[in-house]
User: What shape does this take?
Amino acid sequence: MERGRFRFLENRLGIIASLYPWVIDIRGNPERIAFTLHRITGIILVGFVALHIISTNTPARAGWEAWVEEVQRLSGVNPVSLLFFIAMGALVFHSLNGIRLLLVELLALGIGRPEKPKPPYIPPSLKGYQRTLIYIVSILSLIIWALMGYVIFLM
Amino acid sequence: MKAGTIALIQYATAILMVLLIAWHVAVRIPWLHGVEDLPSTMSPEIIYDEVRRFWPLLILLSIAVVIHGVNGLRGILLEWAGSNERLRFAINILSILAIIALLIVAVHTIVGLPELG
Amino acid sequence: MVFDLKAATRTPPRVVRIRVRRYNPETGSSWWQEYEVETYRGMTVLDALLKIKAERDHSLVFRYSCRMGVCGSCGLVVNKRPRLACQTQIAEVASEGRPVVELEPLYNFTVLRDLATDFTEFFRKHRFVKPYILRRDVREREEPTLEYSQTPDELAEYYEYSLCISCGLCDAACPVYASDPNFLGPQALAQAYRYIADTRDELWEERLRLLDVEGSIFKCHFAATCSAVCPKMVDPAGAIQRLRSTLLKYKVRVYRKTRVAKVVPPMEKREPQKPLPPEATLVEGVDLKLLEEEKPVIPVEKLLTS
Assistant: This one.
C-alpha cells in the first residue's frame, strides 16, 4: 500500500497459512490441523473424482475388454494402485471429518454453550465434543485406511 | 446465486454423499461377492449388473460428487484469487464448465454402457 | 487463549534477547533487530518494549495504551503466536534454554512502521455488520424514554461475545483471512452474531441478509485458531458456527427469533392504578384520594395492646 512517499507493508501470510498449519504457533488447536487436512484431502479428491469419472467411462467408450485391462492395473503394488490408495485415505478422512463439520457448521453442535469467562479461559467451542470427535475421526480413518490397504494390496 | 444458497447445496450434497459413498465403497468389499481380490469385484458381470440395478443412485452420486467437489475447489480458489475480479469471474465460469463436462461423461458412462458380449 | 497460570509466578531468564521485526516505510526495508534486556519477575513483553524504547532505541515504534489487557491496542505476534503484549509474561514465552522472544507485527494487517499496524480495514469490516442495536422504532432507540427488558438467560446467550476488545488477534490468526482480503474476518462476524443473539435487536433479518454474500460467513471453515488466540475468551469460532447455522435455518424457514424485547417501564411506577370495580364498597370514612397522597399510619402500639 502506498500513501504519499510512504510505502506500507502488506503483512499477509497468504496461501501458505491454509496449507501449512505451523506457520503460527497452534498449541491447543488441533482444529487447525483438521482444517488443513480437510482442505488438502479435498483438493486430492477433486482430482481423483475427475480421473475416476473418466476412467469408469472406459466400458462405454472402448468396450469391456479395455475395462478389464483398466481394472487389472489396480492389482499389486504399482503407481496406479498407490495413487488409488492415497485417494482412498483422503476419501475416508474427508468423509469422517465432513460428518464432524456438518454437525459443527450446519447444526452448530459440539461447540458448547456460551459461558462467562473463568480460569483457565478455554473457549467453549474448544471444549465441546467436536474436540473429541477430531481424535475419533483421526483414529477411525487410520483404521479404515489400513483395512482398505489390506484389500487393495494384500488380497 | 446467493452465497447462502450455494452453501446449502454444498451441505445437502455432503449429507447425500456420506450415504451414497458409503454404499459405493461397500459394494467393492471382495467378501460380499465371494471373490478373492479387489479387481475381481469390478468384473464386467458385476459392474453391468450393478449399473442396471442402481443407475439412479449412481447418477445421483455423480451429480452430488461433481457439484460438491467443483464448488469446494472453486471456494478455495476464490479465496486464493483475492480481489482480482477477472480471475474470480474466470474461476466461476470454469467451475460451471467443469461441472457440465464431468456430468456429461458420467451420464455417458451409464447411458452408453455396452451389452455384455 | 489458555493462560499459563504458573508463568505469572515463575522467574524469567535474567537476560532475554528480544528480536523485533522492524519496518521502515520511507525506505521500504524490513529487518530483524536484536536487543538484550535484563528482566525481572512479572515483566511483560510490553514492559520489555518500553524498557528498550526508554533505554536503548527510541526509534522503535509500537502501539499501546492501557497496559492491562482492556484496550486491545498492543496486539503483536510473540514467538509466532498472536498475543497481547501487555498480557504476555516474558516467563511465559522465554525459558532458560531458549531466552529469545521474537516479536512481529500482527499478521494479515498492513504494517505502518515496526510493530504498529493499520486497523482501518479492520474497523471498516466491523462497521459493515452494523455492530449496534437496530430497532424499528428509531426514535425510541436514539432518544430512549424507557428500558428494554431482558432476562439473565437471554443475556448469557451473547454476553461472552460482547467482551470483544477489537485487538485483531483473531484476524491475525485466521488462515482464511490470511489469503482472502475480502473475508470479513472472525471479529466482525462474531460481533454480527452478538447482535443477532441479542433479544433487544429487532432487525436481525436485515443483518442476516447483509451477511448472505460471498466472502462472509461461508468462507469460515472452523479452523478455530481465532478462539485459541483470543485473549478475552470471546470464542469467535463458536459465534460464527452459530451464526451460520442461524442463517441457513433462516433460509430454509425453520428459524425465527424466539423473542424480541419490548420496552418496559421502570419497576417503581408500573401502571396507573386501576379504578375500583363498581361493586366494591368502601369502608365508611375512608377517602381514596387522601390515601394516595399520604400513606396511612398504622398505630402498631395500639394493635399490640388490644
